[in-house]
Automatic annotation (TrEMBL):
A GO term for molecular function: copper ion transmembrane transporter activity
Protein known as: Copper transport protein
Tagged with keyword Nucleotide-binding: no
Family: Belongs to the copper transporter (Ctr) (TC 1.A.56) family. SLC31A subfamily.
Topology with respect to the bilayer: Multi-pass membrane protein
Length: 161
């Protein structure tokens, strides 16, 4: 194996390794123009979110719409979680179990779509998902809008006099 290296025993000679690119070319179908699929976080309105070609190079309006859709889906995932928690505390009947299972399946489907959107590595999409989850948690599960039953309200007012 003489001549296969520079004496350091790795057999690579004087070859240098180039670092991997942070994006890779991606075709968007039969439209004749491709986009780059980023493999690291980036800022920019030209991105693909969940579906091929959407929003793509359609402009700032479609990008903002995709940001809004991701925000709403993340908030919906949290709202479905709150509904599931409240629903699970009701009577344990077969119909309630089927309904709870359907709510869970829908929540997981929406959560996976949000995850796929975040995998676009676009910072705006990532922030929209975070804000959506925060809004959904605040509105549905934080307890800030806790509804008092009649007896709870009377007990609360008599102890705070």
């Amino acid at each position: 194996m003489n001549g296969m290296g520079d004496g350091d025993g790795n057999g690579m000679g004087s070859m240098t390794m180039t670092p991997p690119s942070s994006f890779m070319p991606m075709s968007t179908g039969n439209h004749g123009h491709g986009m780059m699929m980023h493999m690291t976080f980036f800022w920019g309105k030209d991105t693909l979110v969940i579906f091929p070609g959407w929003p793509g190079n359609a402009g700032i309006g479609m990008y903002l719409l995709s940001i809004f859709v991701v925000l709403i889906m993340a908030a919906l995932a949290e709202a479905l979680s709150a509904i599931s928690n409240r629903f699970s505390q009701s009577d344990k009947t077969a119909s309630n179990a089927v309904t709870l299972t359907a709510i869970h399946a829908l929540r997981m489907g929406v959560a996976y779509l949000v995850m796929l959107a975040v995998m676009s590595f676009n910072v705006g999409v990532f922030l929209a998902a975070l804000v959506g989850h925060a809004i959904g948690f605040f509105l549905g599960r934080s307890g800030f809008f806790h509804s008092y039953r009649a007896g709870d309200l009377e007990a609360h007012t008599t102890t705070n006099k």
